[in-house]
Amino acid sequence: QVRLVESGGGSVQAGGSLRLSCAASGDTWRFNYMSWFRQAPGKEREGVAAISWFGVQTYYADSVKGRFTISQNNARKAVYLQMNSLKPEDTAMYYCAAEKSGGSWSEVPRYRYWGQGTQVTVSS
What we know:
single chain
């Protein structure tokens, strides 16, 4: 059974940094992608960043390019999101997702496994 557990969220002032972690357990060998999504109150869940094990490619939402960096543990047991120059609009619940089937990296329904989320709050 696959389990994803996020950690590292918290409250920070604008311009600050946080590093999110997602620890994976179970049949992680099947993971082709691991990704980060976020959801702010009253808004839809959106893709933030993704990393593929085949070719080790990375993908980012335009809103976070140049500020966020996704990285992974080669054993497919963890994925990280380094978030720099945080802005109030980055405030959201951040979710880890794994194992994508077809489509775009940022499409929520494409992912089979999800974590419970970790809250990030950025104050101005």
